[in-house]
Hints:
Elements: H1 11-24, H2 27-38, H3 45-54, H4 59-80, H5 87-97, H6 108-116, H7 122-128, H8 132-137, H9 140-149, H10 151-164, H11 169-176, H12 182-196, H13 206-211, H14 234-240, H15 242-251, H16 255-270, H17 279-297, H18 301-304, H19 309-321, H20 326-363, H21 369-378, H22 391-402, H23 405-423
InterPro entries: COBRA1
Region (Disordered): 193-231, 347-387
Pfam family, one: COBRA1
Amino acid sequence: MTHQEWAPLIGPEGSDFVAATLAEQVPGKAVKTIQERAGLQHELCTPLLGMVDQLGVSRAEAHRGVLQAARQALMARVQSLDAREHRVKLERLLNASFKYLGMYELREVPFAVMEKLENVPPVFLKQLTGDRQIFRDLPAKVQRQVWEFDKKLLQADALAPVGQFKYEVATIMRALAMDEFLPAVLAAAATKGAKDEPGSKSAPAPASRAAAGGRGGGGRAAQPRPSPVTGITRKILRKGSRVLQVLKGMVGTSQKIYNQIVELCITKYRDAEGLYVGFKELSYCTLRAQLLMALHDDNSAVATRDACHELAWTLDAGIMNGQLTDKHLQKLMKFFDDVSQAEQKRESIEERKRELARERKKKGNKRTISSMLDEEESAGDRTGGGGMVEPYRVLGEASIILRDPSAMHLLAAAVLQARQGCTG
């Protein structure tokens, strides 16, 4: 009997075989043909089944026992294989077991093989996109590979948590707390006023007297450096956000998935249908910044590769501190100076390309412009090519992070404090 004749009755192929056999043969013969194809082929199987019948073991129990033994043997074999040394063996085993995904008792085997492989072949990833039930049961590592393979599936799965973030209590409260950093401004102004007032070197500032409740003293002098604004730091809010935990789980170590989720946040903010920019629209900006910082909290390499990492980190530190210090402001200035310099470099490269194109056309040079730029770079001219990120795109993403309500409130408070310093 050939392999095709005894292939298991699994999936569409098995269904078609059963339907065709029942249509072509009389019922008794059709059942026998199906049993011959689907039955265990070892010569000892028939007498052993007869023996278990005599022992009072039902065929269903015998079937479950065989499945369990086969699953345990295969799982032990999979775990013993090295993903790199035995990649071909694992792929062959995946090809043989993939059809059993529809059988709950055996799907553990192809799941384990796919998780063991460093990269699941695209032909299997494509099939996994078509069955949502099986996809939900896949190991997280395999799910990420499917999302990387199918951008539409990723967006469909990420859309719900991204949309739910706007309804989290912390998101709403932080967006509405427009005065969250004013205590720092008022405290600094009160302290400065008390110091500047003649003969009141040791007198408490007005803000301190108010804080003392008019009891004639006992209040501590206001300090320019406040405690954290809300009592709950952004890091704690990140850990408590269900949406952020879901999205972090989706990202894992995949830069591609992270970039696509960030792109989704930007698209949702850009295409918002509101008549004005309210907290619901701004939630996408908060989510973009908080997802980056959540990965930063985990020391993820995905966060460090984000071009806006330094900007988000600096703003987050300022928000936690309650004000922007000189060090924070210097880092912000450096970030935007670097973007400006990168744009100037890009413009010089484009101009140099145009010059080389004119020279090439004039002299009839057959070398490509890229090869000419590479020669200049190897000779010491560093204005040549390179994989530079587009500065304007970085600036656009930076604007999303700056529009996070807490970041905007912090910057507004810094402007007020600077204005007080100029007019004081």
